[in-house]
Specification:
single chain, nine-stranded antiparallel sheet, elongated, two-stranded antiparallel sheet, alpha+beta, Lipocalin, 222 residues
């Protein structure tokens, strides 16, 4: 058996508890406040446009009511585009992984283990392990901690897009470059493919090897 592709020895199991939501909301509030200030300012300009002066300073003829309205609409459109861009930068695909998760369910476990050449006895023992995963994420930097029944703890640190040293639960180490694709952390090895993503309050991991796929779902604890 190639220990590096054992599902219980995979580097990822799947850490701030969804900080992306508060950060996005903070940005939204900031942009919305700016939009409100802009509307109030433009409204003041509109109310004074008939006098052609603001604070005693003559207003150019182009600042007609129609012109001011057009400027207001253009600036609001720009602020909306800015809000969309800022929220996109902190989308769940970037910041959603942080948290602590506990094993909840799995699919196709026995067939997958059999395909890896794992004995029935080991397969049974591995099934009874209580797997807890804690993820700490800071931008593109991850710390991925897995605990197996509280006795065997495996910690891996990696940066998306950079080659990192990954250790399996069996102690084996190898080099791998992890990617972030469509909100999923992806691991690609010659005979192993793994994706990890957050779906609602679940950590969903899918392992594929030799044409057989195994899915593990963990529920969020924190």
């Amino acid at each position: 058996m190639n220990e590096s592709i054992h599902p219980e020895a995979a580097m990822l199991g799947g850490s701030p508890s969804e900080p992306h939501k508060s950060q996005v909301l903070g940005l939204k509030d900031l942009v919305l406040q700016s939009m409100l200030s802009l509307v109030l300012w433009q409204s003041s300009c509109l109310s004074l446009s008939s006098t052609r002066a603001i604070d005693g300073v003559p207003m150019p003829s182009r600042y007609s009511t129609a012109g001011m309205t057009k400027m207001l609409m253009m600036r609001m459109l720009m602020m909306k585009m800015l809000l969309t861009a800022l929220c996109g930068q902190l989308s769940p695909s970037i910041m959603a992984f942080s948290g602590k998760f506990e094993f909840e369910s799995e699919k196709n476990y026995d067939e997958f283990m059999k395909g890896l050449g794992v004995s029935e006895d080991v397969t049974t023992k591995a099934r009874n392990l209580k797997i807890t995963t804690e993820i700490q994420q800071n931008g593109q930097d991850f710390t991925w901690i897995q605990s197996y029944s509280g006795t065997n703890i495996m910690t891996n640190k990696f940066t998306i897009g950079k080659e990192s040293e990954i250790q399996t639960v069996g102690g084996k180490k190898f080099k791998a470059t992890l990617k972030l694709e469509n909100g999923k952390v992806v691991v690609d090895l010659p005979n192993f493919h793994q994706t990890s993503e957050i779906v609602g309050d679940k950590l969903v991991e899918i392992f594929t090897s030799g044409g057989v796929t195994y899915e593990r779902i963990s529920k969020r604890l924190a």
